TrEMBL record, chain A:
UniProt protein name: histidine kinase
Region feature (Disordered): 64-85
Localization in the cell: Cell membrane
One annotated Gene Ontology cellular component of this protein: plasma membrane
TrEMBL record, chain B:
Record-level GO BP terms: intracellular phosphate ion homeostasis; negative regulation of phosphate metabolic process; phosphate ion transport
Oligomeric and partner information: Homodimer.
Subcellular location: Cytoplasm
NCBIfam families: phoU_full
Classification lineage: Bacteria, Pseudomonadati, Pseudomonadota, Alphaproteobacteria, Caulobacterales
Protein name (database record): Phosphate-specific transport system accessory protein PhoU
Biological source species: Brevundimonas aurantiaca
Primary location recorded for the protein, binned into one broad class: cytoplasm
């Protein structure tokens, strides 16, 4: 707020100060002239003094600045309009603010179409997809709480903060600050209000995560822990001297301990990924290379089960924006599942395709099977996708199981996943990674036909490619 | 309202569109809050949802009045007429959506009296989130006049049905396992049904948006999967695991 526009009850404005000075000088001159009239003997001196005072007053007046500047609207600096450099700088500061900032004009109080966006910075334009100036506020923010707060700021001069959540696959938590921007020009002008949005998702997420993690972890760890303590009790008791039983029990116990270890590792990586879910990944990964690496890595497992993994890397490089470790984990988890559910001696096909449109990316790979998107990203124009599909020829799943596959610890009943029992978190992890990368995940399956999982990610934009190469 | 100022015709149309967007925002919030009140067993929130439904009804009446006034006084034609009629249709869909959300909130109040049913309310929450997303997408499509988005919503209707079927089976298993849960499970079942119908209203709105923009009905095959759970007898499938 600039100082000129904040009238203080104590300090008079500069104009009235000028008047005070003028009046006191006039009185001084008058007194001197009066004295000269009463005491004619020193009249020469007194008149000289009066001339000096009047002269200096005239000089002062001439030097003092022209009438005080007219009050400027709040928020704009007093010298804004006169100093193009500062105005330009302020413009750029406004544009580059990280939080979305909007200035809304009022119109008539009872006409919702009167709330229009006068100004919006880049963050706001990107977030709310505002294409032109003067767009209706209600077209970009529908949240009733925020609309009410804006109305209160415009017509009631009330500042408020409002929390709200935008739904969807990745729900975000926002906090909206609304402030009145009263204009000095007063009557006849539209009231203005300032709206600042801030993303509070991360803070809220951390809090939720802790609660969820504790609940999940304690529940899932209870089963192996119970069996461990059961065996320990047996070993301490009547199985103490039975060497054969002891060996068998120790084997089971070590398997259970392994499972607990895997579970803890998976839970930790899941919560880490979930915390980062709203931070876009930086870095570049070649999906085809990642797939080849994972195929190499699981070769020991597949050889043991005599499963053939057929990799089709596609013709072109499939470069995507992503975190390499996470993309590897996606492919790894999908391939792990496929191997797990394949019969011994079966085949698993993994293929990578690139330069797909949105609709091509999630199109069907397995005719005759039920297809269900588990993660669908927001549609963005002009984005090409690269997809990796992992297909097995295992028992497949009935359609009622498909919507729940990415749920934590969900298991399709009646299916054996082999000796290496899973943690029930694999697909949940895949889902969160895909979500973070703004990609999609589709499952296709039918009982007896096996299953195909396709994860697809937005590809690196070519323009950036050229710049990186030059 | 300043009756003496003659508003431009375009302004009046814009106002109706803006009112629809506001009403949509309110309906969205109602659905989201209703689901939240189920998931968190939040009685105060559920009561607030029930109360706020009046506001939605008032908005509905207001929009209808404005649309009728516009038709009577301005005789809109072509796309303007479609916009006006579309607004009336969408307002009706949104009002129904609000009623269904209110019903969910009322049931949440009853559920809160009993024991928590964590896994089941989670399923409701998941389905609710999906339905909310569809509602959001279709309203985004409406406010931005984006045809693709509206068609995308229209085409993915079967996702909600899948969720509904899965939930139906889940609830049935619960009720068979423990008859004491039948009361609560029935409420949850109605909630799921309400959510499914909210999804249908979103599909309706998508159709209206398509008509409003192009003047034609959506043609083409909607991926309609197998019949929903209540049409077929689902019990035989339960014994397969």
């Amino acid at each position: 707020m600039s100082y000129d526009s904040s009238p203080s009850p104590v300090a008079p404005t500069s104009t009235s100060r000028l008047w005070t000075v003028g009046i006191s000088i006039a009185i001084a001159v008058g007194v001197l002239l009066g004295l000269a009239f009463v005491h004619p003997q020193i009249a020469g001196w007194l008149v000289g003094g009066a001339v000096v005072v009047a002269g200096s007053a005239w000089l002062l007046n001439a030097q003092s600045p022209a009438p005080a500047p007219t009050p400027t609207p709040e928020g704009a600096p007093a010298d804004g309009p006169t100093d193009p450099v500062t105005a330009d700088l302020l413009d750029r500061v406004f544009e580059s603010l990280d939080d979305p900032v909007l200035i809304v004009s009022g119109g008539e109080p009872d006409d919702i179409a009167g709330r229009r966006i006068v100004m919006a910075n880049k963050a706001a334009r990107d977030l709310l997809r505002i294409h032109r100036q003067g767009a209706l506020l209600v077209q970009v923010i529908r949240e009733p709480g925020v609309l009410e707060a804006v109305d209160e700021a415009l017509f009631g001069d009330v500042s408020r903060t409002t929390d709200y959540t935008t739904g969807g696959q990745r729900d975000r938590r926002w906090r909206a600050w609304t402030r009145p921007l009263s204009t000095e020009a007063g009557e006849g002008r539209d009231p203005l209000a300032l709206v600042v949005l801030r993303d509070e998702t991360a803070a809220r997420r951390t809090e939720m995560m802790r609660v969820d993690f504790l609940a999940n972890a304690s529940h899932e760890l209870r089963t192996p822990l119970a069996s461990l303590s059961g065996f320990i009790e047996t070993l301490k008791g009547h199985a103490r001297d039975d060497a054969a039983a002891r060996d068998r029990f120790l084997d089971i116990m070590s398997a259970q301990a392994d499972r607990m270890g895997r579970l803890v590792a998976d839970l930790l990586s899941l919560s880490r990924i979930e915390l980062n879910e709203h931070i876009p990944p930086s870095g570049r990964v070649d999906l085809d290379r990642a797939a080849a690496d994972v195929v190499d890595a699981v070769s020991i497992l597949t050889q043991a089960k005599q499963i053939v993994v057929a990799l089709d890397r596609g013709e072109t490089r499939a470069s995507i924006n992503g975190d390499r470790d996470e993309i590897l984990q996606v492919v790894q988890n999908l391939l792990d599942n496929a191997v797990k559910y394949s019969p011994a001696g079966g085949t698993v096909e993994i293929s990578v395709r690139s330069d797909l449109s949105f609709d091509e990316a999630w199109s069907s790979r397995m005719p005759g099977a039920t297809r269900l998107p588990l993660v669908t990203p927001d549609r963005a124009a002009g984005v090409l996708y690269a997809a990796v599909t992992v297909r097995d020829h295992g028992p497949g799943m009935a359609r009622e199981h498909l919507p729940r596959l990415t749920e934590r610890f969900y298991r399709v009943e009646g299916q054996k996943s082999g000796e290496r029992q899973g943690t029930g978190l694999g697909l949940a992890i895949v889902k969160h990674i895909v979500n973070r990368h703004e990609g999609g995940l589709v499952v296709e399956s039918a009982p007896g036909l096996g299953a195909a999982f396709t994860a697809w990610f937005p590809m690196v934009v070519e323009r950036r490619d050229v710049r990186a190469a030059s | 309202m300043n009756q003496h100022t003659v508003k431009a015709y375009g302004d009046e149309l814009n106002q109706i569109t803006a009112e629809i967007a506001r009403m949509g925002g309110l309906a969205e919030a109602q659905v989201a809050d209703a689901i939240d009140s189920v998931a968190r067993r939040d009685i105060a929130l559920a009561r607030a949802v029930v109360e706020r439904d009046l506001k939605l009804d008032a908005l509905h009446r207001d929009i209808e009045k404005k649309a009728i006034r516009l038709i009577a006084l301005r005789q809109p034609v072509a796309s303007d007429l479609r916009r006006t009629l579309g607004a009336m249709k969408i307002a009706t869909d949104l009002e129904r959506t609000g009623d269904l959300a209110k019903n969910i909130a009322k049931r949440a109040l009853i559920l809160a009296e009993g024991e928590p049913m964590q896994p089941l309310t989670r399923s409701i929450e998941r389905m609710g989130r999906l339905v909310s997303t569809r509602l959001r997408d279709v309203l985004d499509a409406y406010t931005a006049s984006e045809l693709d988005r509206a068609v995308a919503v229209w085409q993915t209707d079967d996702e909600v049905d899948e969720h509904y079927n899965a939930l139906f089976r889940e609830l049935l298993t619960y009720m068979m396992g423990d008859p004491r849960t039948i009361g609560a499970c029935t409420h949850l079942l109605f909630m799921a049904k309400n959510l499914e119908r909210i999804g249908d209203h979103a599909t309706n709105i998508a159709e209206t948006v398509h008509y409003e923009i192009t003047g034609e009905d959506i043609v083409g095959e909607r991926p309609r999967a197998q019949p929903t759970a209540e049409d077929s007898d689902p019990t035989p499938n339960l014994s397969t695991h």
